[in-house]
Amino acid sequence: MPKLRGEAFWRETLRSAHYVVAPMVDQSELAWRLLSRRHGAQLCYTPMLHAQVFLRDANYRRENLYGEACAEDRPLIVQFCANDPEVFVQAALLAQDYCDAIDLNLGCPQMIAKRGHYGAFLQEEWDLLQRMILLANEKLSVPITCKIRVFPEIAKTVKYAQMLEKAGCQLLTVHGRTKEQKGPLAGVASWEHIQAVRKAVSIPVFANGNIQCLRDVEECIRKTGVHGVMSAEGNLHNPALFEGRNPLVWEMAEEYLEIVQKHPCPLSYVRAHLFKLWHHTLQVYQQLRDELAKVKTLEGIVDVNRELKLRCQEEIANQKEGEKPKEGLPFFHWICQPYIRPGPKERCKENGTSESDKCVRGKRALEEEEDGNSELLSKNKQKKKLRNPNKSFDPSLKPKYAKCDQCGNPKGNKCVFNMCRGCCKKRAFKETADCPGHGLLFKTKYEKSLSWQSSQRVIQNPEISRRGDVAAGEAAVLQEDGDS
């Protein structure tokens, strides 16, 4: 049976899905997808998977896709990040039997994507992208889709989308922000770009950006004409977003934790979800925020969730008639609702600093800062600084290491070959040599093995040993006769 394409693929395989849960690193795992589907989501994506790791690591495949089969979790699209056509297609071939389509991530704007050369940092390499999609479209038995970010220019964005469609993309998700718009610099997504793409291509288009409630979904579809709307942040803070409800936070948290007990996932995922769900409440109960950050077991997370619920119920019981939500929230903090990410100016005010202090710098820009000024360090580096006040992140102060003669990695200080351990091991094995500096004793072990084999032959053949003793005795007699 030939694979469906374009509109037919969206209508029949994806069941005309309008409400879509975005691919989110470590956050759109099976348990969260099932919770979202129970509350209105019609299509889900897996977390972004690294094609190279998926291809070589069986455990990674099992943990992220090959686990317990779940009929509820369909339709499902598996998303990969990749920058090599062969690697991408080989990974997709291993995944295609477990999903309804394969998505190529061309939208991740984070620093890790820049370092790994994937996501939105491939958007200028049209020739490479064409080759990746053409090969995938030819080899895979399921359709290939793409998720992109826009260029500042609408015309270039349209040409980009048309190129992907021509290469074989069967569905396009457009995040209406550029790759520079992230963190506190995210700003508003451009639905104008999305509308232009929708009019310029014949394949189905999903919109992503500015979705905080069901009313936003409906308005986005009306203004842009897209087939469906994808949500990430909005879904994380309110998994019932597509139902048009704002439930009590503990209802969603308890339901999610019950699903996790049936479909386990790493504790870090669970903790991150509760931080999102309880975001506004944890601003009120800072002590419980710290407890949630430190807890080491699922049972411990359940206990923290129960305590948050009791605190909120007690607050509700003591609530005065006519009392309104604080901190400018549309609802009381124990109700699922959007979190509006503060912009640079608001973040400056929160931190008590001014724009002259370069508070407009984004989170990832801070991570790239390498000097010792703790105000300009990432949170992780600040924690390291607290543990070791003398630690410096200035690259000029880092010790310089002699390089391996073979590969350029730091060499072992006591290596007899002036190599790193990996290269030393290969050479020592090839030459049956020892390197005490790296603890490699191929020569010594080989000699011991020969000695042991020799002793075993003597034990197994005592006649040889006896003849050897007789011969030695005769030689001694002859020697004595000669001396006399």
UniProtKB/TrEMBL annotation:
Protein name: tRNA-dihydrouridine(16/17) synthase [NAD(P)(+)]-like
GO CC aspect terms: cytoplasm; nucleus
General function of this protein: Catalyzes the synthesis of dihydrouridine, a modified base found in the D-loop of most tRNAs. Specifically modifies U16 and U17 in cytoplasmic tRNAs. Affects the level of some mature tRNA and thereby the total cellular translation.
EC main group: oxidoreductase
Compartments (UniProt record): Cytoplasm; Nucleus
Cofactors named for this entry: FMN
Gene coding for it: Dus1l
Domain of life: Eukaryota
Pfam families per the UniProt record, alphabetical: Dus
EC numbers for this chain: 1.3.1.88
Record field: catalytic activity: 5,6-dihydrouridine(16) in tRNA + NAD(+) = uridine(16) in tRNA + NADH + H(+); 5,6-dihydrouridine(17) in tRNA + NAD(+) = uridine(17) in tRNA + NADH + H(+); 5,6-dihydrouridine(16) in tRNA + NADP(+) = uridine(16) in tRNA + NADPH + H(+); 5,6-dihydrouridine(17) in tRNA + NADP(+) = uridine(17) in tRNA + NADPH + H(+)
Gene Ontology MF term list: flavin adenine dinucleotide binding; tRNA dihydrouridine synthase activity
